[in-house]
Amino acid sequence: MWSAYTVFLLDISDRGTQFVSRFWKGFCKNVGIDLSFSSAYHPQTNGAAERANQNIEKYLRCFISDKQDNWSDLLPWAEYALNNAVSESTGHSPFFTVYGFDPPVLPATFPDTAIPALDEHLVSLKETWGRVKRALEESSVIQKIKADSHRRPAPVYQVGDRVWLSSRNIKLLVPSMKLAPRYIGPYKILRRINPVSYALALPSHIRIHNVFHVSLLKPLLCNRYTRARVPPPPVSVEGEEEFEVKAILGARVSRGVLQYLVDWVGYGPEDRSWLPATEVHAPRLVRAFYLAHPRAPGGR
Hints:
Blueprint lengths: L9 E4 L3 H4 L1 H9 L3 E4 L9 H17 L7 H14 L9 H6 L15 H34 L13 E5 L16 E12 L2 E4 L10 E3 L3 E3 L15 E3 L2 E3 L2 E10 L2 E8 L8 E4 L6 H10 L8
Parallel strand pairs: 1-2
Antiparallel strand pairs: 3-4, 3-7, 4-5, 5-6, 8-9, 10-11, 11-12
């Protein structure tokens, strides 16, 4: 919200296409807004907005219809309820913080005010904002002390270190995520974004942003019982480079094309991929798959 008295200098958002576009970056730069993007799968980066979204969802959940098709009609009322609710941190509602008074339940006509009354109103607003600022600062200190009491110092990684990446938020092509590996990789650290975020060198087929919070990383510790997996290079088949197929795990028809889910030799579940059947040169493994799954697409 823009007004004559407030200017937002920091914008925290996720990495949606509308926020990382050149137009939006140029706009924010010209109006003096410092862009800050949250790291992947770490909603705590923008906790205030995430908490506000949860509150709105809570309101909608209480009043939405069985078909859940009237949530957009309830949004104005949810917004009104949220803006009129007293915050535990500030001791005031968001509406009172901005305007200096609580919103009326029904619209009312206010008489024209003279300049002295306007001055009194501005003084009242200034006093309100001062109280809110002090309350927020005190609440922030208390929340930080409570949060830090359960945290350990963040590990420090160097460029070139290899780390494991949590698969908690990554969709692996496995039958059940309960039995899937908890960490994938290891991947090399490209750069340190800030004390708690790092950019990783991810394979091209993993189509997610490569900046992660340290809570999703685990250092690669090798001893005589563990060994980092080094994926094998492709082999040359009739002048073309191909990777060796370990097994065929599934079959589907996508846009009229038969595809196989391929598991590669020396690679983990995060590297499995769907390929057109014409590009899979492993007839013995294809026959083995259909013997075990005769009703799969493309089977006889």
